[in-house]
Amino acid sequence: MSSPTPRWFTDHGPGHADWYVNRFRNLAAQGADLAGEARLVDALVPPASRILDAGCGPGRVGAVLAERGHQVTGVDVDPILIEAARQDHPGSTWLVANLAELDLLGPGQEPFDAAVLAGNVMVFLGPGTETTVLGRVAAQLRPNGRIIVGFGLDRGYPLAEFDHHIATAGLRLEHRFAAWDLVAFHDQADFAVTVLRTPA
Questions:
Q1: Could you give the CA distance from residue 98 to residue 76 in angstroms, rounded to a whole number?
Q2: To 5 degrees, how large is the angle CA 84–CA 87–CA 91?
Q3: For the chain, which residues score pLDDT lower than 50?
Q4: Which helix H or strand E contains 40, and what residues bound it?
Q5: Is the torsion defined by CA of 38, 71, 111, 125 positive or negative?
Q6: Quick check: helix, strand or coil at residue 110?
């Protein structure tokens, strides 16, 4: 039985992926700082870590992590975004896959040290697959690995619901911030960055 269609497709009309790719290409050309998520992830992991960029889009987060010496594999359900990542950042591995069905650890494949889900990935999953996705991402990581998740709290995915999904997936909440630059979380925050641990 196939997983529900991700909201990334059902919430957006034709051409949205191309618009998204061009938006970030233009921001990069203008010199915008697009590395905030990657800076935080880089600070949380050892040098030369294996990092899974889950819901990688056109690869902007994973590309910065690769520049900082990490081995990056990016996965996204949208082939247009993956093609853009392959064109713009050819040094890493970029794969088309549904996170709810993620299975990257074949024979001889080393688990990842950490995973990042930036860019509101959790908001655009298929309905009802949130716990499954957290579990599938965790299954690709070594014991006591880190998963760093960020999304806007105005996107219809309540934080209490996310916390329930975290617990159901068997993960431990380690830290929470209101922004990728480590602003302390507070009740009026409109964004949450959550650092999780996989079981030891």
A1: 7
A2: 115
A3: none
A4: helix 36-44
A5: positive
A6: coil
CA atoms within 13 A on the CB side of 115: 31
Please state, in angstroms and as integers, the Cα–Cα distance from residue 152 to each residue in 159, 175, 189, 192, following that order: 10, 17, 9, 6
In this prediction, residue 1 carries a pLDDT of 62
Supply 164's token pair. 């329930």
3-state secondary structure 149-181: EEEECCCCCCHHHHHHHHHHCCCEEEEEECCCC
CATH code for the part of the protein at 7-197: 3.40.50.150
Lookup: tokens for 77: 């359900």
Q: Which pLDDT value is given to residue 2?
A: 78
In the numeric block, which tokens belong to residue 50? Answer: 């294996």
Q: Of the candidates 123, 178, 125, 169, which has an alpha carbon nearest to the alpha carbon of residue 147?
A: 169
Which residues, in sequence order, are CB contacts of 65 under 8 Å at separation 6+?
A: 38, 41, 42, 51, 53, 72, 116
The pLDDT of residue 180 is 98
Of 188, 36, 11, nearest in space to 116 by CA: 36
Strand segments (E) across 41-171: 50-54, 71-76, 93-96, 112-117, 141-152
Q: What is the pLDDT of residue 63?
A: 97
Nearest-5° Cα angle at 117, 78 to 15: 25
Whether residue 9 contacts residue 34, with contact meaning beta carbons closer than 8 Å, is answered with: no
